[in-house]
Amino acid sequence: MDGLSQRVIVEGLLYFNRLAGVDEPVHVRGHNAVKDIVGIVQASTLVIPAAGLGTRFLPATKAVPKELMPIGDTPAIQLVIDEALDAGIDHVVVVSSESKPSLRAYFEAAPALVASLRDRGADGVADRLASIGRDWRVSIVHQDRPLGLGHAVGCAASVVEGDAFVVSLPDEIMGGSALLRTMIDVCSASAGSVVGLMEVPRSEVSAYGVIDPIGSVDDRGVVAVRDLVEKPAVEAAPSSMIVIGRYVLTVDVFAEIGALTPGAGGELQLTDALRAQAHRSPFHGVLACVDRWDTGTPDGFLAAAVEHAVRSDRSGPLAQRLRAAIDRAER
Fold this sequence. Notes:
There is one protein chain. The protein contains eleven helices and 14 strands. By secondary structure, the chain is an alpha/beta fold. The protein has a single domain (about 15-295), classed as Spore Coat Polysaccharide Biosynthesis Protein SpsA, Chain A (Alpha-Beta Complex). The strands form three sheets. Strands 1-6-5-2-7-12-9-13-11-10 form a ten-stranded mixed sheet. Strands 3-4 form a two-stranded antiparallel ribbon. A two-stranded antiparallel ribbon has the order 8-14. Strand 10 (about 210-215) and strand 11 form a beta hairpin. The chain is globular, with a radius of gyration of 20 Å. The relative contact order is 0.17.
C-alpha cells in the first residue's frame, strides 16, 4: 500500500472480541507529554463507518447502500471523501459489511468502462470514473456485527496510519472542507482529539451528545472540552453545543475503545472512549463554519439533494426550476 497513484482495496473481517489493533502498543498522550510532541501529530487517514443497514431507506437499501445513493450526480460517500481529500487526507478506510459488495465495487478500477466512455467521446465522465482511488488509497474492512460506532471505528485500527485520523459519518454532508481543516490543525497543534460542533437551541440538546466546555469559544470557533454528555436533560446540559459527525482522533482512542464495556444493545459507544480521552488529555471542539446537511432520513437526504442542485454550477436550468417550485410551495 505504498505511495499514491494506485487503488488498493484491503478486506478484513473484524470480530467483537478481537478488534484489530487493540492489543498493539499505542502511545497514550497525556497532558504532561503535550509539550514534547506538539506540532508533530499528523492525520492522513479518513475512516468512514458504512456498515449500517440503512433501514430508514428501505426498500431502496435492500439493493443499493445508502452511501451510494446520489446527491445530484455524486454518491453521498464521494462527497464525504472529497471533503477530506481537500483537507489533505490521502488514505480512505471504509468500514463496510459483507452485505454491501457494491461499496467495494464502487472503488474498484473499471478500465473497460472508462475506455468505452472515451470511445464515445464522454471524456468528462471517464475522467471522473478514473479518478476514483487514483491519487488516494482505499482500504476496506468489514464489521462483522453492528455493535455501535465505537466498534466500527475500532475495526479500522489495523489500517489507520499516522498519529491521528479523521472519522466522518457518511450521513452528514458538509458544505466544504473548512471545518475539517481547522480540526486537523487544532489536533496537530494540541496533540489531542477534536470533535466537530454545532450550536442548537437549548430545548433540543437532549437528542444529542453535548460538550462541557472549558472557557469560551475563540475567534476560530475552537473551545477546550472538559467532558461529553450523551443526551442530557435540558436542565442539566452543560452547554448547547452538540457533537456532529466529524472527528479528528489521536490513535490512542483505539486503546480506549478496546477497554469499553458494551452498553445498551451490546454496543460500544464512541462517546465513552472520547470521554476517557477528554479526562486525561487535551481535547477540543470546533464550531462548524460550513453548511451541514443531515442525510440520515429520506427527508433530510432530499433536502440535501435539492440544495446541492440549486447551488451546483452544473445544474443551472434545474436549479431555476427547483427555485420556482420552492417559491410556489411557499406561497
